[in-house]
Structure formats: structure tokens, C-alpha cells
Amino acid sequence: MRSHAIADTATLLGRSLRHIARSPDTIITTAVVPIMLLLLFVYVLGGAITTGGGDHYVTYLLPGIVVITVASGISYTAYRLFLDLRGGIFERFQSMPIARSAVLWAHVLTSVIANLISVTVVILVAVAMGFRTHADVTAWLAVVGIVALFTLALTWLAVIPGLTAKTVDGASAFSYPLIFLPFISSAFVPTASMPGPVRAFAEHQPVTAIVNAIRNLFTQHPVGDDVWIALVWCVGLLAVAYLVATHVYRTRIR
């Protein structure tokens, strides 16, 4: 039964990836806004921002831009789910001998792959702008793992509005607060420079821990507790989002 579900997921994943390959504008659009923010903050505002470290500002900034890239990209998951739901694709699949879980997992894995490609594009642009790292293979694998886990958690969160929204705009609009969240974190400036209440919020929200963990891995500084806090946030969000999304799916698609 499990091998049957894996095979079905692989087949539907191939279908979704072919759609992405035929229409790469999804990946391009996802990367455009983060790249524009990267250019704006490094070349226009970077000279006025003090981070307290000796690294180039693009090195400080990149982890936050990576988070924004992922937050931007997951909106397309909700969008594609909404279109499939409205187009009757789900009902068509339900009439076929396909594992129920395969449909959702195919969309989720497509999102993870597409977002990792977008993140790669953003990192390459950052390298062209002066980003340098002495991170070894282990540190890079840790960064990829954190970003992939964060993407997986947010993608399952995106499944919920994709299945429940009444309009296309409603399906993708949920990502706007997620894109804004890095601006109230350590992504652009150290939290120590923020006023009291804002600093308290910034230091206790998930993006700060994720950004700090990735930044310290890139710069080969001690990661401290940030990496564990980041993992707890990601795993907790993933568990809650998965349970809610699968419940909504079973309710909507009978």
C-alpha cells in the first residue's frame, strides 16, 4: 500500500513538474521581488545600516532574502491547488485508483523543488553582488536542510487556503503577512537596534531564529541555540499545518 502511494505521488509529481518546466515564469516571478530587495538594500540602503560585524552587508542580508523568497513562492502552491480544485481535477483523480494522499504530496513536493530552485537563483545573484562564505559541506547541507524544512512547513500551510479559498486572490493573499514577517526580525538589521516592544517580538518569532541560524552557518560562527529553536519552530508549524490541511482535504474531497 505504501509503495503504491509513493508510485502515485511520483507520477503526479512528474505531472506538476512538467507544468513548471513549460511555464518557468513561476520560478522567475518568485525570484524577482527578493532580488529587487537585495539590490535595494545592498546598493541603496546598505551604506546607512550598521550590523556590527565585519562581513559585507549582502552576507548579512542574504538569509533574510532567502526566507522572503520561500514566503513568496508558496503562494503559487495555494494558487495551483485552487485551480485544480475548481477545475474538477481532484474529483477526476478520486475516480481513479490513486492514493488520496498522492495528490496533495505531489503539489507539496513540487513547491519544495520549485522554491529551492528560486533560492538557488537568488544566492547566485548574491554571489555576483559580493556574497562570500567559508561554509564547509556540512554547513551547506545544514542550510539546505533548514530551508527545505521551512519550505515544507510553509507549503503545507499554503495547502489550507488553497483548499478553502473562495477566489484566486484569496488563495494566494495569505502569503503577504509571511513576506512581511522578515522585516520585523534580524533579517535586515540587528534586533538590538529596535525599540523595546518591537525588539521583544522580533527576538521571539520564528524568522529571527531561522535567519540567525543560516547566517551563522554561512559565516562559520557558533550557531548556539538558534538552530534548535529554528528546527522546533519549523517542525511544530509543519505538524500543525499538515494535520489541519489533511483534515480540510478529507472534508472537502470525499
TrEMBL record:
Pfam families membership: ABC2_membrane
InterPro entries according to UniProt: ABC2_TM, ABC2_TM_bact-type, ABC_2_transport, Nod_factor_ABC_transporter
Domain spans labelled ABC transmembrane type-2: 25-252
Family statement: Belongs to the ABC-2 integral membrane protein family.
Keyword Transmembrane helix: yes
Localization per Swiss-Prot or TrEMBL: Cell membrane; Membrane
A molecular function (GO) term: ABC-type transporter activity
BP-aspect Gene Ontology terms: response to antibiotic
Organism taxonomic ancestry: Bacteria, Bacillati, Actinomycetota, Actinomycetes, Mycobacteriales
Keywords annotated in UniProt: Antibiotic resistance, Cell membrane, Membrane, Transmembrane, Transmembrane helix, Transport
The organism's place on the tree of life at top rank: Bacteria
Entries under PANTHER family matching the protein: NODULATION PROTEIN J (PTHR43229)
Protein name: Transport permease protein
GO cellular component: ATP-binding cassette (ABC) transporter complex
Membrane topology: Multi-pass membrane protein
Transmembrane segments: 26-45, 57-82, 103-131, 137-159, 171-189, 227-249
